[in-house]
Amino acid sequence: MHRLLSILLFFVTHALCGGQEASKPTAAPEATQSRALLKVNVTAQPYDLQLPWQKQSPVNSRGLGVVLEGNRVLVTAQLVADATYIEMEQPDGGQKLAAKVIAVDYEANLALLESAIDAGKAKAFFASLQPMGIDTSARIGDAVAVWQTGRVGELIQTPLTISKILTRRYVVEGSGFLVYETTGIIRSEANSFTLPVIKDGKLAGLLLSYDSKNQVTTILPAPIIEHFLKDFADGAYEGFPGLGMEFQVTLDGQLREYLGMQPDSPGVLVSAVVKGASAEKAGLKKGDILLAINGHTLDARGDYQDPQYGPLSTSHIVRGKAYVGDAFELKIMRDGQEQVLKGKLTRKNPEDYLVTPYRFDKGPPYLLMGGLLFQELSRPYLDSFGEQQTENSALLRLNHIARHPDELEEAGRQKLVFLSNVLPTPSAQGYDQLGGIVVNQVNGRTIRQLRDLDAAFKELKGHTHVIELDDFPHVLYLDAAAVEQDNLRLQSGAYRISGLKRLE
Amino acid sequence: MTLRLFLLPFVAATLVSGSAWAQQEGQRAASQVPPEWEGIVNIGVSVLFPDYREPWNAGQPSGGSGTGFLIGKNRFLTNAHVVSNATRILIRTTDDPKPHPAKIVHIAHDCDLALIEAENAAPFEKMTPVDFGSIPRLNTEVIAIGYPIGGDRMSVTRGVVSRIDFRPYSHTSVDSHLCIQVDAAINPGNSGGPVMQDGKVVGVAFQGFSGRVAQNVGYMIPVPVIQRFLKDIEDGRYDHYVDLAVSDFPVENPAQHKALGLKDDGVGVMIGDVEPAGSVGGLLKPGDVILAIDGNPVLNNGLVRIEGDLVNMNEIVERKFAGDTIQLSYQREGKKETANVKLKRFDPYVRLGSQYNQRPRYLVYAGLVFQPLDRNLQDAHQIRDASVNYVFERYLTDKLYVERPEPVVLTTILPDQVNTWLTPYAQSLVDEINGVPIKTLDDVKTALAKKDKPFIEVRLHEKNRPLILKRDLAEAAHPRIMQTYNIQEDSYLGRD
After folding, report:
1. Does residue A398 share a domain with residue A314?
2. How many structural domains comprise chain A?
3. Cβ distance of A482 and B255 shorter than 8 Å
4. A298 and A363 together in one domain
5. Is A379 a domain residue?
6. What is the mean pLDDT of each run of 10 residues along chain B (496 residues)?
7. Is the ipTM of this complex over 0.90?
8. Per 3-state DSSP, what percentage of chain A is helix, strand, and coil (rounded to 5)?
9. Among A246, A390, A428, whose Cβ lies nearest the Cβ of B384?
10. Residue A312 and residue A404 in one domain
11. Structural domain of residue A486, as residue ranges?
């Protein structure tokens, strides 16, 4: 069905192109070409988060990659997320080369590609190409251009002017990164907005998003790209560091007075500190007034004066300018006293969170036991329910738990294991309507992560598995022998489940 | 997942126009309405729908029409939803042009029944009250009599008893009782009218299905529910239904059956959850098995046999009254136990259902509007805040009522220079004010009265900053805001 559809589309596209060609003037214009751009064609297949043993339908997307030194190609991470096949294509000649991801950062939304096959072919493929340099000098008011390639590789330039520079989250949850914002119309030649933004022939950024209604473009800027490449260059990619704290602006005069702040004094109110992150390790506490980071004074909005960009959110001082392992210094006010807190920047990886904030390329961990499906709670799982999250009672509860990880982490939980669904099997008879319930204990063993569950089921002494839940009906029983039969049936029967577990 | 169908209580949405009623006096002798039906009357109601968004306003006037019937000396039975939020009730008989003002004597929202009386009893003295029958048999004929849409005079429709079941009563949306389904046409306006068999009342027509999914589905309140209501009010007070306040989990799974140590006689249902504030809080716990109530064996699916029919085990409790005792036989870890349980109403339930005849409670201070969280508030404000939704949705199941009997929401902030930085924080749950934990709306008043500090400090649930008001500025702004936003009283905390 899917194949049929794509063939159909292919023909339609050709017919359209033919029509355009016919209406063109006969004298062919001189087409400029860029030797630093490659089409990147990606087939991606995300996992089905609710039935985690299977994958969703493959999706194709196309973007433009930028050739860098060492025959590497830069694209957004979004483009290659959950990729099953990646190829690079020369815009004019059409030669193709299979590619692989050698570095990816989903928070910074950047990925680096390389040839997936032998070096000889890659060398020939890259011979006619020219790496592009990076330009981090862009400021508000600068002219840049989005580069795209046409049907035969001709360069299509869309000029834009940078109107704002700010920080914003890219694709996944987390602290903000630097962003250039421009206004103007872009017509995408590809089906994704992974396109290079050029300033004076050098790479100034990659297109991040385009809001066609308001014609606002956001650009992932060169300083972040440079940071990513530099981090990768030393061999061990560590990622962008974070302080792990939230703050509240102090523009409200009554709040300032309450906090004991002078009318024109700097600083923001620290409203949350992430457990185990850099700021907490340095001694920052909720309720502190944060006055300065690394010598940059913060105003009541939490902005510092950046020499290049003007007032900019404090998050750029850490995210954009520093690396994991760098020393940092916080000037704070606590109980009316100024203090200086010092520490080393660290990074909390997605796996280190009780509720995994994002996951790509890897299948979600799960365990099936006689029809009972257990999973580790993740943000993408909750998000896969869309609007239902605000209405469904079980999802509201899981969401509530996800917002309060601290108490559960203190209780020793590494991941939140829950019964997500029940497939109708004889051993799970009567349990079909259950779902979205956190697991506390199985066969007497406390469940801190999915591996515990696996171990608990294996070490059963008697004939009945006892599963203790933290919500109605609080306890479930499974007949061990019936479960084994059902497990076989789940694999060979109607469900054809390839594996009963994925523990990572 | 089961399909959720919405039940619609039948109150005609429009006001009944009284003029069409005018009949010629002389026609009385020729009336087709038999004399024994004279006591089946039309009830016209003017209502005020309380305004939970502007709780200081009186509300939205509206009206409706339903049916009632004489069951005793100047006593008319009707549905609670017919006379809820009424400001004026008028009784009209089918052949008398004169409206008779009436008032509510007792109203029971949990079973959607009400008793009303005419202010002047004289016109009804000669009428014969109807008699009650019992639960009709399946597939036997019944007639529904009332004043539904489609005309002004009395209407009769006919059908059979389709089903006898335990069903939700949509008036409060949280109560379920015994309910009889009939296929006689029951339409808006029939509400409160009798359903009769062999000249006796076997039910009160009260709800149907809205939408196009089901056809010929009407519901009536059966006699046991009516009689329970009449008995409850005998002492001059309605004491509400009592509840076990447990959730049962059917024993269908063979391993579960074995692990619970049950016999092969089909008896015993597992307890999945127990409300600590309910009748058996502290006695039962999840994993226990209820074997029998008052000697009636409870089957694996939670049903008991009463008068030959299988009904939900709650039906035994349903027929009891506050303070009554039941004998509970249950099994814990294989050991049989027996206990006598004194039944009581489970109050936290009430908040989750729609409430009527109540003036919205609120407190305004310096433009901050505080209101208690309940279904009426949720329906009016459609709050999207995740923590408010969580607290409302899981109020019972996560036992949140234990810590927070009456969750308080900062629903609105009426903008003024004093609170201009706080407006984004409207529709949040209030945790604490001036160090006082907010468990009820009254706590807000107590907390604001604490004047030991120059600041008022409002802490919201899952919001990482306190809302701060300088007391002197807030005190000065308060009367100004009251005047600007046309608020007469700055609080209504309820009758004491």
Report:
1. no
2. 3
3. yes
4. no
5. yes
6. 35 32 42 85 95 95 95 96 96 87 96 97 91 95 94 92 91 92 92 96 90 82 96 94 94 95 95 94 95 96 89 90 95 95 89 91 98 95 90 88 94 97 96 97 96 94 93 97 96 84
7. no
8. 25, 35, 40
9. A390
10. no
11. 351-502
